[in-house]
């Protein structure tokens, strides 16, 4: 079973009747073998299903409309084994609402030099047929992924899987519901936004709930359920015996169990896969959820602090895109800087960092929360694993959305932080904090982000192209003058592309 279960990608091959039934049978057989070979590859995270050969405008339209209505089809891989006149594809591609990849490959890798004849040439015309097909995608001004190379090559299969994972994220975006418990942090700009525009652009829904709705769900959690949850905490985390011996600390831990179970039950009932809350808006709750939020994120829920629903949605989408891969994904905030021989960022939040980003066993501690409701709250302590990572921010520009990506290198802190009672990660932005910080600010990036070691920049680019939104990347090649010029050019492009 592939990691995405019933979700599939359709493999559709183009040809035409010019070549006769015998050759079309070869085309169909070869197409099925490619789909089977891709599915069998460990590099692919989802099943690739052959949908046969299409040879007429009617067949092409039928398969595109069938893909649109199939809930388990997240996208299509299109390939021209022979020449397939591209005017046949206009109606189908115009109707297609699922993302598609153009795989520019051919069935055999090496040419059989001594045996090549015109039958071989007519059958293996991808070098020629895919160019005709590529033209119509460009003429229709469609965003699509183009992958070039032999389908059995590891690098090609990796590119295909990157796109498959982005398509899974896009599918999730169109079925995602975000629960907002309370409102945004007061007077904060970047966490606000147009939820109607977001639903039009990305597909996800954002629903607001009063704290009374959530507290009612939490109040229904029984003492026996809480006791069972505490046993799970003992198994999964390091917890000092003093926490259980001290009545106050035990009560704070029990409180987190109640909040976790109550929030999860509420979201399961409403089919929500992401949520927000705000430390300024907690009436009816016993405190800001700490351990509870961390555990829900580790189960796959997206989260955004202080009502940040855009980050909550993107958090969930990235978790889906990274399913089955090493490397976690968390809500994050650039909290404070270390200006030294190499400038660094210490990322953290008040409580809510996902333990999926660490490679060590987290510790449960009860410590004071000093913003909003000031009280002791149980939380997980750990440090993010070293290695490459991304910070991703989705912002509302008013007339469009922009996704910002900064590539970073996470490192181990040079010393212990014994007095910092929150989870954290230390990273070095590319190309440097000086350039990355300026570029992030010029782009309008939020102080909240989705921090991940589970996906690549290429996958975020693929997702942004599926969504039709602007994306800018801050990496080792970024310089401010060119970056500002890119932002200016993007502003013109996206303004004109929306029409009058």
TrEMBL record:
Residues 8-173 form the L-arabinose isomerase N-terminal domain. Its cofactor is Mn(2+). The keyword Endoplasmic reticulum does not apply. Residues 328-470 form the L-arabinose isomerase C-terminal domain. Its EC number is 5.3.1.4. Binds 1 Mn(2+) ion per subunit. Keywords: Arabinose catabolism, Carbohydrate metabolism, Isomerase, Manganese, Metal-binding. Pathway: Carbohydrate degradation; L-arabinose degradation via L-ribulose; D-xylulose 5-phosphate from L-arabinose (bacterial route): step 1/3. Pfam families: AraA_central (PF24856), AraA_N (PF02610), Arabinose_Iso_C (PF11762). Belongs to the arabinose isomerase family. This is L-arabinose isomerase. The lineage of its organism: Bacteria, Pseudomonadati, Pseudomonadota, Gammaproteobacteria, Cellvibrionales.
């Amino acid at each position: 079973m592939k990691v995405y279960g019933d979700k599939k990608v359709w493999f559709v091959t183009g040809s035409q009747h010019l070549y006769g039934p015998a050759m079309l049978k070869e085309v169909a057989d070869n197409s099925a073998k490619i789909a089977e070979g891709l599915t069998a590859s460990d590099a692919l995270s989802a099943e690739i299903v052959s949908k046969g050969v299409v040879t007429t405008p009617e067949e092409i339209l039928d398969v595109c409309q069938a893909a649109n209505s199939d809930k388990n089809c997240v996208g299509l891989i299109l390939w021209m084994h022979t020449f397939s006149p591209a005017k046949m594809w206009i109606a189908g591609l115009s109707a297609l609402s699922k993302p598609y990849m153009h795989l520019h490959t051919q069935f055999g890798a090496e040419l059989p030099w001594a045996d090549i004849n015109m039958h071989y040439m007519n059958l293996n015309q991808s070098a020629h047929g895919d160019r005709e097909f590529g033209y119509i995608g460009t003429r229709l001004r469609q965003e699509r992924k183009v992958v070039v190379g032999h389908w059995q090559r590891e690098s090609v299969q990796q590119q295909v899987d990157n796109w498959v994972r982005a398509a899974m994220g896009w599918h999730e975006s169109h079925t995602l519901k975000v629960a907002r418990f309370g409102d945004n942090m007061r007077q904060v700009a970047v966490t606000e936004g147009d939820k109607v525009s977001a639903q039009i652009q990305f597909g996800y829904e954002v629903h607001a709930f009063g704290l009374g709705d959530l507290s009612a769900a939490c109040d229904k959690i029984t003492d026996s359920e809480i006791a069972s949850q505490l046993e799970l905490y003992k198994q999964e985390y390091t917890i000092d015996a003093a926490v259980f011996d001290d009545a106050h600390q035990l009560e704070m831990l029990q409180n987190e169990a109640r909040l976790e179970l109550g929030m999860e039950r509420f979201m399961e009932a409403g089919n929500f896969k992401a949520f927000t809350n705000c430390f300024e808006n907690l009436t009816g709750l016993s405190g800001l959820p700490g351990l509870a939020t961390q555990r829900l994120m580790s189960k796959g829920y997206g989260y955004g602090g202080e009502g940040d629903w855009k980050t909550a949605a993107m958090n969930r989408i990235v978790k889906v895109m990274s399913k089955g891969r090493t490397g976690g994904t968390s809500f994050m905030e650039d909290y404070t800087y270390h200006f030294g021989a190499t400038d660094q960022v210490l990322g953290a939040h008040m409580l809510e960092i996902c333990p999926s980003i660490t490679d060590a066993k987290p510790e449960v501690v009860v410590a004071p929360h000093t913003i909003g409701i000031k009280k002791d709250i149980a939380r997980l302590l750990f440090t993010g694993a070293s290695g490459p990572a991304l910070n991703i921010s989705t912002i509302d520009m008013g007339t469009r959305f922009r996704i910002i990506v900064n590539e970073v290198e996470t490192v181990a802190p040079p010393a212990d932080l014994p007095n910092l009672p929150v989870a954290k990660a230390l990273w070095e932005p590319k190309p440097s904090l000086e350039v990355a910080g300026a570029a992030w600010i010029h782009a309008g990036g939020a102080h909240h982000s989705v921090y991940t070691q589970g996906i690549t920049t290429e996958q975020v680019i693929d997702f942004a192209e599926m969504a039709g939104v602007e994306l800018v990347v801050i990496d080792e090649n970024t310089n401010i003058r060119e970056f500002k010029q890119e932002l200016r050019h993007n502003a013109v492009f996206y303004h004109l592309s929306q029409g009058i």
